[in-house]
């Protein structure tokens, strides 16, 4: 039976298990939209194509399945660029389908023509320009396979209008992808499992650094097994939060620029770092020259290109993390590292005593209070999607994630405007999860048009705006490093509660800590979307902080005059 | 130090662009890049020379493998190998100078492939050093025009010089990008 290229597109997606797509129609993708009505696909109409890519991304991160976004040529395609780059940096498997002008018009500067495969070449794992109906099936099937395989990431398929309109016979067996396996072979210079095991068994002060790869690989249990057998403490990257339960006694917490002070100090004192599915980002290492100088280093990552990139390591293993850990575990000696664990306890100092939840209400509403209350009221079980900035760091510090894939945030690219659309994707992937958006007043205003999508799709997504009237993280940098010259960081906004009501969303404004619980509980009881505008202390800062490029152990701590609000 | 890679890729439009873009994006400087068909239809071979250290070379190899159209990468820097460059050099030479130039061509085992009243075109193949040296001695006579291919290289003997990989069985959609003169890589 002959199918049009447009039908082949949907047939291929449905065969690969795709049930939901996020998109926005337009001229060059019209044939595909017309054919979509014949397939069992839920289409979510977005308000901007950037939102479609973030939704596909949130969908993928929440579920582990491939997220699909679709847009028309020209501006539809270029609006996807930020979302594609975000997915690339955070290894999120998404497939973007774009319409393209007719193949005969390519290169003629036709209406809404743009070279989207050229534009996205460095920010996709791979991309395809499809100019005939026969090529649609192999391109789409391979795109999905590439997005999922190895280190996941975004793939774009650009399909000309005539390729969507013409008909062809499809041999589905012949169209199945044949990816080169060379990637999985060991190359000269690759480390051996026995070298890693020898280092682990000999170490006195080992530390596991667990990243996003723990969840992508599905190695959550194996990492904990390694930690427990060897009595090895664990430090977690921002994107790794949730991969190991925050409540696990060997889990120290987050590392890096806004990580816990004792975690960063433990890294600097360790004699062995076991880096699992993380990539030594500059936000994690600080000054690379003084980073963990006493430590031998083992690095496992499925992307060989990450090995020996930022940090030179003693054993570099390019392998799926779970496979690697399964090989190690039988050979890891039961450890007794009481002295090392006691040393780390000493590093914690009085931090636990100053835990924010034990502090009295001094009349100010601090963002950290809001997050801490949200964590307590949702019993730590919500799927939280954060934007980028101070609120993102406070969430990472005060919302204790015990469940894998329960925190979704833009780490590598740091994309403001990510949270609301990504939460929509996450809610559609996991309809039974309680989804909270934690977002600043700046980032929210970048993509708040997607509130209309929340309403049109009738989604129960709760939004907590951490509203301090500043682009807070930039303001903090100006306070610390630019002599408090607040260039372009004070930001006004609408009355967010009234705005939400205009969209048909229940809303509340909170200015006192005493009102936090009531507003959160009301939002939770409501089985549809709700928005809370938390008007918090304006010039609060995130502590501790390792200034960009500074030594990891040289952190800025919260100044003593307001120490009663700190939990650093 | 200079590293030489033999890179086998699918012969498809846009692949050269992908490889070149990878080097640019990862801030590696290409000293020379050549590309042409192999003995296997559908597979092209690039010889890429890059100035980087051991770690850089290994990362580059890893990144090349991540390109979907890339079949195989051999770093033949350390292997015993044959490296050649080909040059066409047009020299202004009349009268007595012409005789001198022809003698130099003999000494360097180069060939004269075109003769016109005002000039000669010399073809030479060899290592970059040899061609540089020939160029040096020809310069006083007036080099009007020159073109070089850049390095092509192959490991000696059988084991490292594996056969070119097979082209991909599944047809892959045409990709975007520029063309080069030979083939569509």
Structure report:
- The complex is a heterodimer of chains A (568) and B (185).
- Chain A has 568 residues and is α/β, with parallel strands linked by helices.
- Helix content of chain A is 36%, strand content 16%.
- In chain A, the strands form 4 sheets. In chain A, strands 3-2-4-5-7-6 form a 6-stranded parallel sheet, with helices on both faces. In chain A, strands 11-10-9-12-13-14 form a 6-stranded parallel sheet, sandwiched between helices. In chain A, strands 16-15-17-18-20-19 form a 6-stranded parallel sheet, with helices on both faces.
- In chain A, α1 packs parallel to α7, α3 packs across α19 and α17 packs across α24.
- The radius of gyration of chain A is 24 Å and the shape is globular.
- Chain B is α+β, with helices and mostly antiparallel strands.
- Chain B has 2 domains: 78 residues, ACT domain (Alpha-Beta Plaits, 2-Layer Sandwich); 67 residues, ACT-like. Chain A, domain 2 (Alpha-Beta Plaits, 2-Layer Sandwich).
- Chain B is built from 4 helices and 9 strands.
- The radius of gyration of chain B is 19 Å and the shape is elongated.
- Chains A and B meet through β6 and α7 of A and α1, α2 and β4 of B.
